[in-house]
Write a sequence for this structure.
């Protein structure tokens, strides 16, 4: 059986967190990576958030 993994991303006020998640077990497959957000978001983040999804 093939494991189903996805990239989980949490964009919050204090930081952006990401990890690979096994969606069948609901468990993290990798360690979580956390990037602290700055008082002024990076210009590239503003461009990403302004895209029409």
């Amino acid at each position: 059986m093939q494991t189903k993994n996805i990239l989980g991303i949490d964009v919050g006020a204090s930081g952006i967190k990401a990890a690979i998640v096994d969606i069948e077990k609901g468990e993290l497959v990798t360690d979580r990576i956390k990037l602290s957000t700055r008082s002024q978001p990076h210009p590239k983040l503003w461009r990403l958030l302004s895209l029409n999804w």
In short: The beta strands are 5-11, 15-22, 27-28, 33-36. Helices lie at 43-49. The chain has one helix and four strands. The chain has a mean pLDDT of 85.
